[in-house]
Structure formats: structure tokens, C-alpha cells
Amino acid sequence: EVRLVESGGGVVQTGGSLTLSCVVSDFRKGRFCQAWFRQAPGKKREKVADLVGREDTAKYADFVKGRFTMSRNNDNNTVYLQMNNLQPEDSAEYYCAADDRWSEYLARCESPELWGQGIQVTVSS
Predict the structure, then answer these.
(1) What's the whole-number average pLDDT of the chain?
(2) What spatial distance separates the first Cα and last Cα of the chain, rounded to whole Å?
(3) How many percent of the chain have pLDDT more than 70?
(4) Is 33 helix (H, G, I), strand (E, B) or coil?
(5) How far apart are CA 33 and CA 30, in angstroms?
(6) CA 43 to CA 75: how far, in whole Å?
(7) How many secondary structure helices (H) and strands (E) does the chain include?
(8) Where are the beta strands (DSSP E) in the chain?
(9) What are phi and psi of 106, to 5 degrees?
(10) Count of other CB atoms within 10 angstroms of residue 65
């Protein structure tokens, strides 16, 4: 069974920073794409950033461009999300996701199969 385990969430003031980490127990199972999603109470889940294949540069949602950076370390099977200049509207449960299907590679992880348990990020105003 492949497990994705997030860490690094918490409470931060407006303008602060956090780095989320996600360890993938078997990176082969999530090798084609990795992504970070978030969901705030009462809102739909939205994708924050994704990496596909051997890319080094992630693709970002407009609402985090210039503030968030997604990266991957294949040596320790970990995906990161560096979040800077956090705003109250960034408060949400954050999830990492991954997939090894070619269809998800093409779709840039729009509907990944593998999910972490989620981790809370709260930005206080």
C-alpha cells in the first residue's frame, strides 16, 4: 500500500511562511505526477500546483503564483510546497497527491488516485 504523509502545517500570521512536506512511501507509484490541492470549509477542492514527469518547474494556480513554490526530491521521495506571504484566504486543508497513470501525466494530476491525509494551514489576520 502506498502512503503519502504530509507534515509542516500549522498557524501563521498574515505575511508569514510555511513549508509543507509530503513523503511518498513508494515513489514509483506516483512517478508520473505529483500535486498539491487545498480545500477550505464550504468550498470546492482546488489544485494549487503540480509537477509532471521529470519537470523541475511546477505549474501553479493563479492565486498562488509568485508566492508558492513546489519542488521534489527524488532521493528522499518527498514533495514540498514552500508558501510565502500567506494570506487569510490561503487557510485550508492541504493535500498532496500523486499518480503513476499516463492519463494523469497528460492531465497534470487533475484526478490523482493517491492522496495524503491532509494537513491544516491557518493564516491569522
Answers:
(1) 95
(2) 40
(3) 100
(4) strand
(5) 6
(6) 35
(7) 1, 11
(8) 4-7, 10-13, 18-24, 33-39, 46-52, 59-60, 68-73, 78-83, 92-99, 114-115, 119-124
(9) -65, -35
(10) 10
Looking at residue 10, its amino acid is G
**Type of residue found at 32:** F
Residue 35: what are its φ and ψ, rounded to 5°?
A: -155, 160
Structure-block grid coordinates of residue 117: 491525509
Query: Residue for cell digits 510546497?
Result: 81
Confidence of residue 109 (pLDDT cuts 50, 70, 90): very high
Q: What is the pLDDT of residues 40-57, one digit of tens each?
A: 999 999 999 999 998 989
- For residue 15, the one-letter residue type is G
Judge whether residue 28 has pLDDT over 90: no
Whether residue 38 has pLDDT greater than 90: yes
pLDDT tens-digit profile of 54-71? 898 999 999 999 999 999
Reference 89, options 122, 111, 116; nearest CA is: 122
